[in-house]
Write a structure and sequence with these properties.
The protein is α+β, with helices and mostly antiparallel strands. It is about 15% helix and about 25% strand. The protein has one domain (about 25-170).
Length: about 200
């Protein structure tokens, strides 16, 4: 008879399995606040994070899988807002957020109607905290070079997986925190590197 303190007959520990690349899951994003604000760029509420070493600004996203075989699993992804290396990272971040809004609000990326344009505007970063959408799982590397799950693509009505997952009902009825109000998109900062030992004016 085995006892609790004898682990010779316990199951062998298996490696933590990643969610397979390409898996489509419904997720809810929680922004892990970094306490950084720049009202001139529309970054308020302390949601953004400033990287002291890189000078970059980003959203630290925690994505919780809501249902299916991977329910309650979490995926962590940084969403770029600004990089001193150039506009690419920020542009990728804006592209992902556009996809998230399209997915959550049932919008085709090709829809340029006034209603669709209004739905792609947000009052602030806080509107994205708690947003639910369809995501396609990818695999990247963590800081130690180990494989980790990431989210780089939001699945929108333009993708066949969207209709397969939700049928004709779509995703438009899913709640999105906050209501979008027409407002001009904030200007993007210039990728100017601050002088040695000094933080840029927008990082104060």
């Amino acid at each position: 008879m085995s006892t609790w303190n004898d682990f010779n007959n316990a199951d062998t520990q298996s490696a933590y399995s990643l969610i397979p690349k390409g898996t489509v899951v419904r997720v809810r994003m929680t922004i892990r606040p970094g306490g950084y604000n720049d009202p001139a760029q529309g970054w308020t509420g302390g949601y953004a994070t400033y990287g002291d070493k890189s000078g970059s600004v980003y959203l630290n996203g925690e994505f919780t899988v809501l249902e299916g075989p991977y329910a309650k699993r979490k995926v962590f992804t940084l969403i770029g807002l600004f990089s001193t290396k150039g506009p690419d990272w920020g542009n990728k971040g804006r592209s992902l957020i556009r996809g998230m809004l399209n997915s959550a609000r049932g919008l085709s990326d090709k829809d340029t109607s006034p209603q669709a344009q209004a739905a792609r505007r947000i009052n602030g970063i806080g509107d994205l905290d708690g947003i639910e959408f369809l995501a396609k799982i990818d695999i990247g590397k963590d800081t130690n070079g180990e494989d980790k799950n990431e989210i780089r693509l939001a699945v929108t009505p333009d993708h066949k997986e969207y209709g397969t997952y939700f049928g004709t009902g779509g995703l438009a009825s899913l709640p999105v925190q906050g209501q979008a109000a027409p407002a001009p998109a904030p200007a993007q900062p210039q990728a100017a590197r601050p002088a040695a030992g000094a933080r840029p004016s927008w990082a104060q």
